[in-house]
């Protein structure tokens, strides 16, 4: 197990370096520049701004400077949010997205796995069809439709919940972002769990368990669930990263101040350091959670060995 | 350089000017105030900065007007009202402005706001180290040495500003600029707290470090969530200020803004303009339409054929039915634009351009004749690409105008949309034929818009060049009343050359809760929170 962890750490370094390098150069080669603004600035002012952010240096020097800075934990200064460093912005926004994400993940796993098992055990019944219809609805209903619908229903008609804001994560402010964020994940998890559970329930070892007269709940919880959950786990690793690194829709509609909006606005405004920071964050978390999933595989399924 | 005493003498001979405008919330008789004086305003996009010398967009300005105060402010009519300065004097040749500062103006840490803070703020705006995107704002009024300092040739301390004493601030211009006093109401020319800036660097505007001299001070700033401002007890007119707390929410999406307005989370907000009629019907007392200094137009790339042909440019411009666009496509009180400077500019009457007096039928007929003259016909139709930045609203307008061109002139238009920064790069590189653009005035003066069409202006993407136009705009900079120069310039650029096709003049359209009192935007759509109050409701 230790060797697996070490191997993963060693693999992560070149992977991240490639990610940083490719992202850095791709971004610099994209049309448009951070210096492009609605007001065409006189060249002398452009030169002063370029010098402040080292944009007047060759791209390779900028790249090496960037690498040196991130080695020291400095993600740079934002070209857009001039009163903040990228470290400030990530420190302010990532915990918001992570909190929404963790709650959404818990909700998605509990409801998704529950619905998937329930549907699989009642295959082709009305319960199965209802759960799967809900799952399909969750997949086809994008969160940019769901978010305003939630506000309309909970904030305007019922007046139960505040229509947006974060307020340091007080629970009334969490509910709607979690609904908007988790619905599509619930749907995906339910579909994968159902498919995997149906396959497992038709396996020989389940048939044997049944023949031995084990009660249904024991068959499901002790024998079927572990192998059935393996495909779900491989989905959950990257899904967890996606869910905790935020969504621009949720951030925009609920004004949460999460990191998802920074990523999209950073790309639109050519805020290179911001886009790089979020790319590195998502890259590192993806590597980390894929490694965790691999370890969990080994713990859950004795057939898997590294 | 003139001595201190001779400058004082010049000031003595000049008129001492002061304003008596109201500078606080005015509560009409019979209005009962709500016990809770908190307001939540939609603040547009997240500001790139609230550092007065670094601000470059209205989202930053509107917050800075609450946090900081300059020499003068602008009232709802666009007139000057005293801020930190209580009066000013100008010498005979209108190049030396001397401001008398009020002695009770304080920073939020209790220090007095002095002339030295203005000297530092002005110098900071031009210092290459600050790299202010608004450094050009100090070049326009020709403050002595601003150009050389920005170029890095001399030190910022050489700028033509000085503190004659703690409460007398003086600005010297290289040439008389008639609208200098209109420019000083903007944050680039605000004072700056030197001690805080030198201590905290770029992070001096964070809530825990900021020192401000406006009616409010910063309590919370969560990027993309909210900014909370609370009363600055040190503000000189704090006693007349009513609102205790103002929260700005950075929401740009019209639909998201309006949902939060409906839910009661916003007191002042924008809304999706496509729903204007319904919202106006449902909330007639909430909808506010006010004039705004902005113009929406299409740029012709005069460097490329056939747009180097005046006949083609005129034909395309004439055949845009602006009445139909403002009335039916937009329908939110915008005015058609025939000239280039907005009609709402204070103290300026735009010229009556010939084509604005014709009927649309006459314009269409003239357009058909001009295009035929230029060699285009049904068998040889004009075809080109219209570039706009990706946005549903611009698309809607582009479709409508392309349909007008097709119907009247048989022109084939290909619509191309690009994401904003890419579109700016494309236009800046001159790789376009016709492009969408808009201009919001930086100060309440016609030249703020008309300058865009001068040869060297960075936003003259169509590369329009006409010596006569440049000469008029140059002359205007030293005239006491440059209206005639502006009118002549507009006639040249639009009536004679049709350098761009003006389409409509902006309005500021908002929904404001009926219990919000004192909401009177000035022509630059600025509403100072210190002028607002909440009625009992």
TrEMBL record, chain A:
Keyword Cytoplasm: no
Keywords linked to the UniProt accession: Cell membrane, Membrane, Transmembrane, Transmembrane helix, Transport
Keyword Transport: yes
Positions of transmembrane segments: 12-30, 100-121, 133-158, 170-187, 232-254, 274-300
Domain (ABC transmembrane type-1) ranges: 94-293
Any single GO CC term annotated in Swiss-Prot or TrEMBL for this entry: plasma membrane
Subcellular location(s) per record: Cell membrane
Membrane-related topology note: Multi-pass membrane protein
Pfam families per the UniProt record, alphabetical: BPD_transp_1, BPD_transp_1_N
GO biological process terms on file: transmembrane transport
Main subcellular location: membrane
Family to which this protein belongs: Belongs to the binding-protein-dependent transport system permease family.
Name listed for the protein in its UniProt record: Oligopeptide transport system permease protein
Lineage: Bacteria, Pseudomonadati, Pseudomonadota, Gammaproteobacteria, Oceanospirillales
From TrEMBL, chain B:
Gene Ontology CC: ATP-binding cassette (ABC) transporter complex; outer membrane-bounded periplasmic space
Localization per Swiss-Prot or TrEMBL: Cell envelope
GO MF assignments: peptide transmembrane transporter activity
Pfam family, one: SBP_bac_5
UniProt keyword terms in alphabetical order: Signal, Transport
Single GO BP term: peptide transport
Domain of life the protein comes from: Bacteria
Record-annotated membrane-spanning stretches: none
Solute-binding protein family domain boundaries: 80-459
Signal peptide as annotated in the record: 1-24
InterPro entries: Peptide/Ni-bd, SBP_5, SBP_5_CS, SBP_5_dom
PANTHER family: PERIPLASMIC BINDING COMPONENT OF ABC TRANSPORTER, PERIPLASMIC OLIGOPEPTIDE-BINDING PROTEIN-RELATED
Family classification: Belongs to the bacterial solute-binding protein 5 family.
Protein name: Oligopeptide transport system substrate-binding protein
Organism for this UniProt entry: Marinomonas balearica
């Amino acid at each position: 197990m230790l060797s697996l962890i070490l191997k993963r750490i060693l693999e992560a370094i070149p992977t991240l370096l490639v990610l940083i390098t490719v992202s850095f150069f791709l971004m610099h080669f994209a049309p448009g520049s951070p210096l492009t603004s609605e007001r065409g600035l006189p060249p002398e002012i452009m030169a002063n701004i370029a010098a402040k952010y080292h944009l007047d240096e060759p791209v390779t020097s900028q790249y090496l400077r960037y690498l040196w800075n991130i080695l020291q934990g400095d993600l740079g200064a934002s070209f857009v949010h001039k009163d903040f460093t990228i470290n400030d912005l990530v420190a302010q926004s990532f915990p918001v997205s992570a909190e929404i994400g963790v709650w959404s993940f818990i909700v998605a796993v509990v409801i998704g796995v529950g619905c998937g098992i329930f549907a699989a055990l009642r295959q082709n019944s009305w319960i199965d069809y209802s759960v799967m219809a809900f799952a399909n609805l969750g997949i086809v209903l994008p969160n940019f439709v769901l978010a305003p619908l939630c506000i309309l229903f909970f904030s305007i008609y019922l007046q139960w919940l505040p229509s947006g804001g974060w307020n340091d994560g007080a629970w009334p402010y969490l509910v709607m972002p979690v609904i908007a964020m988790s619905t599509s994940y619930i749907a995906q998890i339910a579909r994968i769990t159902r498919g995997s559970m149906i396959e497992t329930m038709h396996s020989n070892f389940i048939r044997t368990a049944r023949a031995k007269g084990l009660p249904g709940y024991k068959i499901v919880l002790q024998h079927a669930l572990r192998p059935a959950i393996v495909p779900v786990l491989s989905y959950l690793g990257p899904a967890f990263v996606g869910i905790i690194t935020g969504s621009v829709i949720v951030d925009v509609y609920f004004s949460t101040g999460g990191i998802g909006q920074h990523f999209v606005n950073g790309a639109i405004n050519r805020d290179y350091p911001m886009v790089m920071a979020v790319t590195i964050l998502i890259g590192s978390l993806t590597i980390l959670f894929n490694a965790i999933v691999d370890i969990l595989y080994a713990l859950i399924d004795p057939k898997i060995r590294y | 350089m003139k001595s201190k005493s001779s400058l004082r003498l010049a000031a003595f001979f000049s008129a001492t000017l002061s304003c008596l405008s109201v500078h606080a919330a005015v509560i009409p008789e019979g209005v009962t105030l709500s016990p809770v004086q908190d307001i939540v305003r939609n603040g547009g996009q997240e500001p790139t900065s609230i550092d007065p010398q670094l601000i470059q967009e209205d989202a930053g300005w509107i917050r800075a007007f609450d946090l900081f105060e300059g020499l003068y402010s602008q009232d709802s009519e666009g007139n000057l009202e005293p801020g930190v300065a209580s009066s000013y004097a100008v010498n005979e040749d209108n190049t030396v402005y001397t401001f008398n500062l009020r002695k009770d103006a304080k920073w939020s840490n209790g220090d007095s706001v002095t002339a030295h803070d203005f000297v530092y703020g002005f110098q900071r705006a031009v210092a290459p180290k600050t790299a202010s995107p608004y450094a050009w704002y100090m070049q326009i009024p020709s403050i002595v040495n601003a150009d050389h300092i920005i170029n890095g040739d001399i030190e910022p301390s050489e700028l033509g500003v000085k503190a004659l004493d703690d409460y007398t601030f003086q600005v010297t211009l290289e040439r008389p600029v008639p609208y200098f006093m209109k420019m000083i109401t903007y944050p680039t020319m605000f004072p700056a707290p030197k001690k805080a800036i030198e201590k905290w660097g770029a992070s001096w505007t964070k809530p825990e470090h900021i020192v401000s001299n406006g009616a409010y001070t910063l309590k919370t700033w969560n990027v993309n969530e909210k900014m909370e401002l609370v009363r600055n007890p040190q503000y000189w007119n704090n006693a007349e200020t009513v609102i205790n707390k103002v929260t700005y929410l950075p929401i740009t999406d019209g639909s998201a803004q309006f949902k939060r307005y409906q839910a009661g989370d916003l007191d002042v907000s924008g809304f999706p303009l496509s729903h204007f009629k319904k919202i106006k019907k449902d909330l007639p007392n909430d909808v506010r339409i006010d004039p705004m200094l902005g113009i929406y137009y299409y740029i012709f790339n005069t460097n490329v054929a056939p747009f180097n042909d005046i006949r083609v440019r005129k034909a395309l411009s004439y055949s845009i039915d602006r009445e139909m666009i403002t009335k039916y496509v937009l329908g939110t009180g915008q005015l058609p634009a025939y000239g280039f400077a907005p009609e709402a500019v204070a103290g300026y009457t735009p010229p009556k351009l010939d084509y604005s007096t014709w009927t649309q039928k006459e314009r269409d007929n003239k357009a058909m004749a001009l295009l035929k003259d230029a060699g285009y016909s049904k068998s040889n139709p004009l075809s080109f690409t219209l570039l706009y930045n990706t946005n549903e609203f611009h698309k809607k307008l582009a479709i409508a105008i392309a349909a007008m061109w097709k119907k009247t002139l048989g022109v084939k238009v290909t619509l191309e949309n690009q994401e904003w920064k890419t579109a700016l790069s494309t236009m800046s590189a001159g790789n376009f034929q016709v492009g969408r653009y808009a201009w919001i005035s930086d100060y309440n003066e016609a030249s703020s818009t008309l300058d865009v069409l001068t040869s060297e202006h960075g936003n003259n993407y169509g590369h329009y060049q006409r010596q006569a136009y440049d000469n008029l705009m140059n002359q205007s900079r030293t005239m006491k009343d440059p209206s005639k120069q502006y009118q002549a310039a507009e006639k040249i650029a639009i009536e004679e050359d049709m350098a761009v096709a003006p389409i409509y003049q902006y309005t500021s359209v908002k929904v404001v809760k009926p219990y919000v009192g004192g909401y009177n935007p000035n022509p630059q759509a600025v509403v100072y929170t210190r002028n607002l109050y909440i009625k009992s409701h």
